[in-house]
Amino acid sequence: MKYITKTHKKVILFIILIVLMNVAIFTSFRQSVNLSIYSEHDSKISFFYDNSHTENYPFDDSHMSQEYFVKSSKLQNIKFPLDLVNSNKLRIDFGDKSGNFKIYSLSIQKSPLYEYVISEKVFLDKFRFKNDISQYSIEDGTVNIATSGPDGHIYSTDTYSNLPIKFKNSFVIKELFIACIALIILFINKLLWLFRNLPKLLIYYKTIKEKFVIKNIFFKNAFNLIIIICISVISAVILDVVILRSIAKVSEFFKFDTVHHYFLSSYVFSFDRIYFFSSFIFIIGLIVSLGKSKAHKYRYVLAFILLILMVLGKFTGSSLGFYDGMLQGNTPSYQESTLLGIPQGIRGDEWATEKPYYFAQTNANPTLQYFNKNLSFAGNDMVVSAFAPVKDITVIARPDLWGFLVMPNDYAFSFYWTLRLILLFMASYEMGVFLTKKHRFGIITAIIVTFAPPVQWWLSQSLMLMIMSGQFAIVLFNKYLNSHKLYSKFISLSGIALFVLVYILTMYPATQVPLGYVFLMLFIYVLIENKKNKPFAFSRLLQYAVILIPIALVLYHFYTNSSPALHVIMDTVYPGSDRPWIKLPWDYELYQFVNIFTASIKQPDFLNASEISQFFTFTPFVVVVAATLIFKHKNKPLLISLLLSVSLFLMLISWIPEVPFFNKITLLSFTYPVRITYAYGYSFTLLIVCLLAHLEDKRGNLFSGRVPLIISSVICFLTLCIMTNSINIFSYFKSFSIGTILMIFVVALLSYMGFLLMKGNYNSVQSFIVLYLLLSVCSTILVNPITKGTDSMFEKTTMEQIRRINSADAGRWMVSGSPTISNLVTAQGVARTTGTYYYPDWEMMSIIDKKHEYINLWNQFAHIDMRLTDGDLEFSLLDHERSQKVNGTNRIVYIPIETARDLNIKYIFTMFPIPQSIIDKGDVTLLYKDSVDPWSIYRVNYN
């Protein structure tokens, strides 16, 4: 009877939950117009409606939907909320550019239970009014529409009358989902018990073992592996289909456009995304199954398995999908590169400059020679320029490029991205264990360093290589000093040599020098901690000398080959040998509060997201806590003292006026303040890890009474006051609807975390760690898109034509209209005259600018664009065709046809019309004009 009573209670509660959730569905339901549309180019769709106005009511902006972004070559569902009472007119606008569209369905959802469906034939009858429409027909069950002008639209005056009603099958799915949720709530305790005991169940569950008689260790491990794979796949499907779609829908409801855009792709099911997510969950499952000690022991095996899984899937975090917004014409072989996320246009150094150099090297230079004559007349140094793949001993300093030596481009590119992240994560893990002697803090350090804003925003650049290589070198040096076996010493010293080369050959002194001070402090700490191991014994000095030999030989080889390019760079206007000391804005430290939202809500317009990115330092709190620990302890904590000293030193240098003599003798003349902030930010991060590990062992509070509360409250209040006086920061937060609330919230959150740090007891430390991990991951998890392959670069109709023409009759190319597209053309493996030059091509420029009249415009790092002119030669900072100035390091060269011939230019790829006089003279011949993109190919004729 008691059992029946419990069952009845469960059933009643189950029914109540079902009813409540259905009430929530029906009360939150909004009537809507649902459009399923495909576009051949990126476009913006919008709707106009009437809402009970008179028959002659005109469509206007007061009754207009938001603009819905439709990505090229992708079926997309648009849901437009609209109150349908007394409403009957509807207009669909197709953006301000001509293009081709396919409408697969249009329906009006009046209830969660049913909808009105407009079939194809009814569609043409209903939407019979049109404007700037050149094609309007039905084919294979879809409505084909071609717009011919900037105001292409169709509209209906009796949209919702006499339409058939269709029951929504999705309502049944929702009810099943609701039932599942109700069951989860009812049995949450049992599910939590199951989750907590999952590792034991996977390995030691006796009933399963006895039932299947799994006594052999091989079969037991195989069974566990199958279980983990199944859980990984199921979890990935739930994550992709349920969680990510829910995030997209919620963000759309609250109008968080950036988050919604990031997860928009989740509306379309993707096996590639399932594979991507299941790979990570699979590794996590293996870690749980192995347990802490075995997972630590086999950590590099696990990392290698993840690397293999990612490379097989051809996954990267590249923003090369940005090309899809620049070129819409795709070949039949095209597959969209971006699986999830937003290609970051601001990271042009990655997708528009560096990666085209890589593929220009691999596509045109299969032997991967050190000098590439396609990129400059005399041969472009491919190590100095973006450090592209080369079959040379110097490539040993770039393990991430090794894949290009043996793999096809797509797989090598994935190897490049994945290995960088894995090496950084593992190096940070090793550093955390080294600093704290605790494996758990290794994971914490790995997460907060890997997901730090500067690391993620500059992921494709040299910062992460320096942090990774510096950390590995320090950890290996400590391992070497504690090794007693010869082979262990040899492996450690070999690793040190490799990572020292990686650090040196990143070739970016602006960050190398200040980071070098942090690693110097860690090096000193290793020496002092290991003084009993005699780090300066004669035998060790001999070993140091031996390991320096290969380092010196590689560097000598590099200098011998690259000294001409290095001297050219040193003599340029920019970057040159004298780097200006650019002061930090007075509110620069406060940009940390903006970092939290740049990837998820909005990028700032006062400075780009990469430049404002900083480590979360909690500076005032960390200084107070570290100083207190140092002064309270009789035995001064050496590591905390060293990290605090170097952090404050670098911070002071970055904020005081330039001291030329001091900067020169300390090598800080090679850097400038904003790059120094990365170094002391990283140092503060390591200091926080050390403090947390130190405070975790304390049972009482670090400060007595209400001191932490008072200090954190004062800092919170002062921070808010200062932020409201910062035009940049306050304007940023006020630019979106709940920005002011978020500003107050985030200041309060970081102040509360400072309060927890100052309390310093065990529970406070655990709370701080959880919040710190969430802060780090949530701030940057949306920075990088999930990308597969390189079709966005190569499977474009224009790029296909360039490869076809060049393979038939190779020649030098000139691109007119965009240095970015010029770099993409270069990536196809053709010889160039335009694009990004890391250092000037003196041979080419001496042909163009014979008297060096414009030397200050081209003797620098520059993005060169060339246009054919029937006038005189001109180096210009004004784009005459667009009637606007070019920015930054962009340069336009207007060249006569004679100069083009002097440069041996054979083909011109242009988005601007060639001067008619040049065409009339027969100097050029049109070879190809793209039907989708505004680009044409001309051949230069030689008499």
From TrEMBL:
The keyword Transmembrane helix applies. Keywords: Membrane, Transmembrane, Transmembrane helix. InterPro entries: DUF7654 (IPR056071), DUF7657 (IPR056074). Pfam families: DUF7654, DUF7657. The chain crosses the membrane at residues 12-29, 176-196, 217-244, 264-288, 300-323, 411-429, 441-459, 465-481, 486-505, 511-529, 541-559, 612-631, 638-656, 676-695, 707-730, 736-757, 769-787. The keyword Transmembrane applies. It comes from the Bacteria. Residues 297-692 form the DUF7657 domain. Residues 795-942 form the DUF7654 domain. This is Uncharacterized protein. It comes from Paenibacillus etheri. The lineage of its organism: Bacteria, Bacillati, Bacillota, Bacilli, Bacillales.
